[in-house]
Amino acid sequence: KPYVLKDLHRENAYKALKHFLDTEKKKALNNQKIETSEYGTIQKTGFLKPSEQEEFKKLFEQGIPQEITTLSKEKGIFAHLSDDKGFLIMLDEVESLDQKLFEEKHDKLKLSLFNNYKQLLIGSFIASLNRTAKIEVNTVQQRAESSYDF
Fold it and tell me: Are 45 and 57 within 8 A, CB to CB?
């Protein structure tokens, strides 16, 4: 009997959490403010860059799902519900593009791709020469060279 009650309480809590997340998600989608309540708190992370793996690791250790890395559209939102926790995750803002950094990385990438293409082209040309080459040994010249050995 205690197991049945425990399962019933867990199921009721799960349903209440799901209802709460659905309600808060609707609020967020309608641009209404989400506030801390008895059911949950609000946590802002600040800007996260893909290169800051330690920051992501800290969030994942707190139970925040890895799907946060897939959000790319401003005001994008999704709800995640596990057995005992629920998360409503929203991307507030996307950092604006740093044009100077973009140009720098773009030029480096362009040069790298060009060099890789050039290496592949040279390698494939040499491979085609090896496939089509016909090698003949000149026996007359070889005998003449061997007669000069002292």
Answer: no
Token pair for residue 142? 């070889």
C-alpha–C-alpha distance, residues 78 and 62, integer Å: 17
Contact 26, 33 (CB under 8 A): no
Question: What's the pLDDT tens digit per position in 76-94?
Answer: 777 777 777 777 777 777 7
**Distance of alpha carbon 26 from alpha carbon 65, whole angstroms:** 20
Q: How far apart are CA 85 and CA 1, in angstroms?
A: 25
Strands 77-81 vs 86-90: parallel, antiparallel or unpaired: antiparallel
pTM above 0.85, yes or no: no
